[in-house]
Amino acid sequence: MIDSTKYQGQRRRLVKLLKEKGIQDKGVLDAMGRVPRHCFMDPGLEGYSYVDKAYPIAANQTISQPYTVAFQTQLMELKKGDCVLEIGTGSGYQTAVLLAIEGVKVYTIERQLELFKKTAMLFKKMRLNPKKVIFGDGYKGFPEKAPFDAIIVTAGAPKVPIPLMEQLAIGGRLVIPLGEEKQIMTRYVKTAQKAYDRQSFGTFKFVPLLKDKN
Q1: Predicted confidence (pLDDT) at residue 214 exceeds the cutoff of 60
Q2: What is the pLDDT of residues 122-163, one digit of tens each?
Q3: Helix (H, G, I), strand (E, B) or coil at 207
């Protein structure tokens, strides 16, 4: 959990790379520069923490590539006071980046019990404070605290879960990778009740979004 000048220097180089790859949102770049990704890596992989690649974590999941984290976060166009729902807590790295953006409130859902327990404990150790870390089915969202200003899905979905669309506020943004083998990064903006603008932003590769059978 210890940061160091070595890691800080590696993050500065990572932020420089992200700028070169097209990330322009200053809040996102600042967050990427502050969040210690090495704290979210599995033991033995810490030396690769600031390489712009995804790596395996527990429960056959991955910690996302930093560029993907920055790209999805930038697409949400977050501002102070926004309430965000994250589907797929995973390692907690994306959650930490969201929390590093000033004034953003974060709810996060994880369906893998192993990851849920491990990451919830990590958040406490790191004094990271999401509004709530939820063990449950991300397909169902979190209606108790809807509507959300932004929803981010960190796994590949074959189609958009209807509950997530319904839990967006008017003007809210849903960022989700859609597809089977590879996914198209897609953003929906809710313009009115049951009305959405859709945009596509290129091909990515994610682990699949799992759904409860019942």
Answers
A1: no
A2: 999 999 999 999 999 999 999 999 999 999 999 889 999 999
A3: coil
Q: How far apart are CA 132 and CA 189, in angstroms?
A: 24
Of 4, 49, 64, 200, which residue is the catalytic one? 64
83 Cβ contact list (under 8 Å, min separation 6)? 105, 107, 131, 145, 148, 149, 150
Alpha-helical regions (H) of 80-112: 93-99
CA 78 – CA 18 distance, rounded (Å): 18
Identify whether 64 is a catalytic site residue: yes
Residues whose CB is less than 8 angstroms from the CB of residue 161 and which lie 6 or more positions away in sequence, other chains included: 138, 139, 140, 141
Residue 180 pLDDT: 84
Strands (E), 121-194: 132-135, 148-153, 168-178, 183-192
| Interval 11-24: pLDDT, tens | 999 999 999 999 99
Pairing verdict, β 148-153 and 183-192? unpaired
Q: What is the pTM of this model?
A: 0.94
User: Which residues, other chains included, contact 72 with Cβ-Cβ below 8 Å and sequence gap of 6+?
Assistant: 94, 152, 154, 175, 185
**Residues 6 or more apart whose Cβ sits within 8 Å of residue 17:** 52, 67
pLDDT tier at 187, thresholds 50, 70, 90: very high
199 residue type, one letter: Q
- What's at 178, amino acid-wise? L
